[in-house]
Design a protein that fits this description.
Length: about 400
Amino acid sequence: MSDHLAVMLERAKDGVRSFGLARWIIVGFLLLIWFIAGIFTDNDLGTLLGDCLVRSGMNGLLVLALVLPIRAGSGLNFGIPLGIVCGLVGGIFSLELAAANPFGLSWLSGVESLSRGGSGFLIAHAVALPLSALLGLGFGWLLEKVRGQEMMVGIYVGFGAVAGMCVLWLKAPLTSPELIWPIGGDGVRNTIVLQDYYKWILDSWGEVSFGSFAPGALDPQGNAPAFTRSGGFYLPTGLMLFWLGACGLMAVFLKTRLGTALSAAGENPEYARSIGIPVARMRRWSIVISTMLAASGIIVYSQSYGFYQLYKAALWMAFPAVASILLGGASLRRAGVMHVIIGTLLFQSLLTTSLPTVNSLVQNSPYREGLANLPEIARLVIQNGVILYALSRASRGSR
């Protein structure tokens, strides 16, 4: 019995050590924030926990998009904004179908109902995924030509895709009054509201809430919330199942023959070539799948957020995703599904819990006028500090 207990204790110690000192520090910091929020502020701890789950679910697919390029040897895919803009194109296409004469084509009239609810969500994917696969092929080919500089070129491609789309959004041939600028009637607006389309289509599926009402339901005064959730714990069941289901499919894929070949191409390219694995092709396919996951990820993100944000909104979205997966324990050559789950939960929980707590402390302070910008400063320090730590950790691990 004592030997069995000793083995269990040794396994527990190994698990604690494998979790990593940095992640334990962040967990301790989160617990400290929760303690401060519960004692010194008016924030509801159940609401904060629910927000952490929502933010993790809506960002999870973007983090998952980084796994295959890392395992295939292409490094951190800073070019996921290329997939994000494809997802935005698919999303805007699905919303334009609600116009009486979509895209100025009379033969498409009468399809307004397709852009509502789950059908609109599926149409957005049906347009975004083939487009992202096509552009992902070109992106993967480019990265093979600049072998060794993938991350730097990926940043240029991501920024270039967002900048190029700024021009296309201004010239898009759309006719829906909900999409185009009200003055001039040309170009797409900065922010597109999904309230009447497929907002919270995943979040509200099988949702669980305590101390509040579910999304879309009426509050105690009989009013329907338009853009925000009410207080209390909220579990976005459909959103979490969608994210965890995608993670499960990724884990299964990595154990298939193709997934094993892809991992072998990243771990030891020379050996992979010697046994007949087309290493360059594996890297290109990893970029294609990563770009497709990013396209789907921004649609999932937007339905949970309640808006499509265009133009420069996607410019920096790769950096929090990269920080999340590195914070979860991944490196420049090693990444897994558990790194995605742990890193996303830690990073998003850190941002979600710390900012409302800082804001409440500022509001209750007698010096609140001089500290008005402290929450925004705290957000920048926390987010960029974690990103800096994660990237520096990756650089040390690559030596």
